Amino acid sequence: MSSLPPYLSIPERIWHYTFWVICGAVLFFLIFPLLVITPLSFNAVPFFTFTKEMLAFDPAGYSLVWYEEFFTSLNWQGAIRNSVIIAFFSTIIATFLGTLASLGLSRPNMPYRTLLMSLLISPMIVPLIIAAAGMFFFYSRIGLQGTHLGVILAHAVLGTPFVVITVTATLTGFDNNLIRASQSLGASPTTTFFKVIVPLITPGVISGALFAFVTSFDEVVVVLFVGSYRQRTIPWQMFSGIREQISPTILAAATLLIIVTIALLTTLELLRRRTERLRGVTPS
Amino acid sequence: MEISQEKSVLVTADGTPLKISLARAQRRSKIVAFSMVLPLLIFILIAFLIPIADMLSLSVDNSITKEILPKSVIALQNWDETSGELPDEVVFAAMVEEIKKAKIARKHTRVGQRLNYESSGFSSLFRKAGRKVKIIKKPPYKEALIKSDKRWGQIYTWQVIKQFSTEYTDGYYLAALDFKRNPTTGKVESLPGKESIYLKLFWRTMLLSSLITFLTFIIGFPLAYMLATVSTRLSNILIIFVLLPFWTSLLVRTTSWIALLQQEGVINDFLVLVGIINNDGRLAMIHNATGTVVAMTHILLPFMILPLFSVMKTIPKSYVRAAVSLGAHPWKAFWKVYFPNTGPGIGAGSILVFIIAIGYYITPALVGGSSGTFISNRIAYHISSSLNWGLGSALGVILLGIVLALFMLYDRIVGIDNMKLG
Q1: Which residue windows are transmembrane per the record (chain A) (predicted)?
Q2: Given a cut of 70, is residue B151 above it in pLDDT?
Q3: Partner of A91 for a Cys bridge, out of A213, B82, B183, B399, CB 3.0 to 4.6 A?
Q4: Is residue A260 in a domain?
Q5: Does A17 touch chain B (CB under 8 A)?
Q6: A122–chain B Cβ distance below 8 A for any pair
Q7: How far apart are CA A249 and CA A71, in angstroms?
Q8: Percent of chain A with pLDDT over 90
């Protein structure tokens, strides 16, 4: 916070501090729900609220029982396994197809670029409930409803726009002279691709892949319709858990998901800095 | 050196004119570029666009009547539904035969179910007929069928069957907008106020989404302004407060709001503890519209702040300083100089939040109760509970139309290419 200039009038000073209080309140509103969930997940009793023991910081009020439940119960174990399998394969499909398409889209004189782009990112625009409904009807007709393959394909589709957007963004700043330089120095197109293009777009591809991974890992609407109990993911399990019996295991799952999010955000930020450094821009 | 006249056309090493060679190279490059996009295009087409087209066809599909009762439908064509007389024996004979056949294939209830959407009672009529037709072995079928259930003797029954025997129907769309085709006259009538639920639901979805958009704007604007005006170091730290919720699973955020808002939840407990409300007067903040609005405002707030922030970052601080030094009151300088410059950010953020809000399903389903649910919840209900897929699809197509129209607006303001993440 910078010190105030001396010429400000009293109302201006009051307003300045009021403004900071307002902004502080908004920041609090944004972060409070995430903060409150973590201590609640250590609750010793199956309630969604702070007990007297917890407020008194009595160790008896806290326990790891819900974490134990999360890692040992069959329902949650299956959910963790499914989440990882589905997110992993859908990320691979989305990243491969999305990167290839972005390389094509970013080539000079690409025909119908705008039209193709809007088709390719349409899965991001269409409301999830509509995508889920359409996929439910069509996938049950071709026998993919209630299979892992069906959910993986559905999640791959939802993830591709993120890959396309991040990779094309990386390629917009791409200096085509680098390719010309490499070729004029005698490199074959293959060598140019692997030695010049790939290292430069890798950060974009990785962040696109992370976006695709998070999309699949967090997605619940499509998996509710296209999947069944056998394809239950962590969000699926949380959703049905909230609807049926509320247990703080959901809060334990939520806390772990927040930790995963923080890890992903940190990775993304490090990647962003690396890209900027590679381009010769000092990270802000 | 001599320059020959014929050689004025430039050629490449192998003798082809340069122009043709260039065109060829460009065409090749276009084909290469396109073939790189093609795999993803095909994938999206099969796994995403065709399913949506499939939903579109489901919303007008009415082939079930014709499929299960083909002969009866043809025979009914010769019957004048305005004559005031029942169809003749041929129609009844075809109907009995086809219900028998459908009963074996266990499909007779599906016709009943379809016609039941138009006029209640048909489901039971066909289920009953499925049980009774096996005792009807010989003509006259007309008397026998009417004996099994006197509704077969009503002209109205046959009018409904004839009216809804066409291959395609607009019936689901009419139902989705609270209209109905009168089976007797074929005219479109609006449903009485009590039965009209979908227009109300569309209206509520729009209203709550607008309210959520407005709240995210009011709450998000000051923070975006602060993030854009403080030092980069500080804003880099504070933006984490926006990005962390943005990237946290929406189920996690919805769960926290349940923990906070419910009757025995954190906020109510706190208010009781402090003494603002007493234990019997706990506030009902969840499983109603309040719950939906509060939770969704929180969930969609980053979608407002991030576009606002990125636009505000580009507004030079010197603009406001210039206005103030020219004698404008700081308020006026802000209002007349700074605020209009944030227009594109406000437009982008508002449309984005609104588009996401009107299609939201999970949060209203978990915290919306009955007064805070959206049209999406109704679509999900028709798909998984009532199994009226046609109506669910029709509602979905209308919602999709609204979203696409808004998205075109977004594209005009921001441009698809400028979409940024995080």
Answers
A1: 14-37, 79-103, 115-139, 151-172, 193-226, 246-271
A2: yes
A3: A213
A4: no
A5: no
A6: yes
A7: 10
A8: 24
Q: Which of B54, B266, B302 sits opposite A137 (nearest CB)?
A: B54
Q: Chain A 151-190, CB below 8 Å of chain B: which residues?
A: 153-154, 156-157, 160, 162, 164-166, 169
pLDDT tens digits, one per residue of A54-66: 777 777 778 888 8
Are A188 and A153 in the same domain? yes
Residue A36 lies in a domain: yes
Q: Do residues A153 and A208 both lie within one domain?
A: yes
Examine residue A225 and state whether it is found in any structural domain, yes or no. yes
Residues A148, A190, single domain; the answer is: yes
How far away is chain B from the Cα of A109, in angstroms, using its nearest Cα? 6
**Is A26 in Cβ contact with B220 (below 8 Å)?**
yes
Whether residues A43 and A142 share a domain: the answer is no
Q: Are residues A147 and A39 in the same domain?
A: no
Burial of A70 per CB tally in 10 Å (0-12, 13-18, 19+): buried
**Residue B38 pLDDT > 80, yes or no?**
yes
Closest residue in A to B234 (Cα) is A1
Whole-model pTM?
A: 0.84
Q: Do A129 and B30 touch (CB under 8 A)?
A: no
Q: What is the pLDDT of residues A134-172, one digit of tens each?
A: 999 999 989 888 899 999 999 999 999 989 988 888 887
Q: Are residues A226 and A91 in the same domain?
A: yes
Average the pLDDT over each of B7-11, B249-253, B255-259, B337-341 and give the range with the smallest value.
B7-11
Structure ipTM? 0.85
In a domain, A201, yes or no: yes
Most A-contacting residue of B46, B249, B304, B382 (CB-CB within 10 A), to test interface: B249
A36/B260 touch (CB, cutoff 8 Å), yes or no: yes
What is the rounded distance in angstroms from the CA atom of residue A252 to the CA atom of residue A241? 12
- Same domain assignment for residues A111 and A80: yes
pLDDT in tens, B364-406: 988 888 888 899 999 999 988 888 888 999 999 999 999 999 8
Q: Report the residue from A20, A27, A160 with minimal CB separation from B44.
A: A160
| Per-residue pLDDT at A1 | 45
Of residues A31, A50, A218, nearest to B269 (C-beta):
A50
Give the pLDDT confidence of A1-17 residue by residue, as tens digits.
Answer: 456 777 777 888 888 88
Domain total for chain A?
2
Domain that includes residue A224, residue range: 75-246
Residues A17 and A93 in one domain: no
Q: State whether A262 and B244 contact (CB < 8 Å).
A: yes
Mean pLDDT of B224-249: 86
**Between residues 197 and 256 of chain A, which touch chain B (CB distance below 8 Å)?**
211, 214, 217-218, 220-221, 225, 235, 238-239, 242-243, 246, 250-251, 254
Asked whether residue B296 carries a pLDDT value surpassing 90, the answer given is yes
Instruction: Collect all residues of chain A within an 8 Å Cβ-Cβ radius of residue B298.
Output: 29-30, 33
> Are A159 and A94 spatial neighbours (Cβ–Cβ below 8 Å)?
yes
For position A284, what pLDDT does the model report? 41
Which domain CATH number covers A213? 1.10.3720.10
Chain B nearest C-alpha distance from A50 (Å): 7
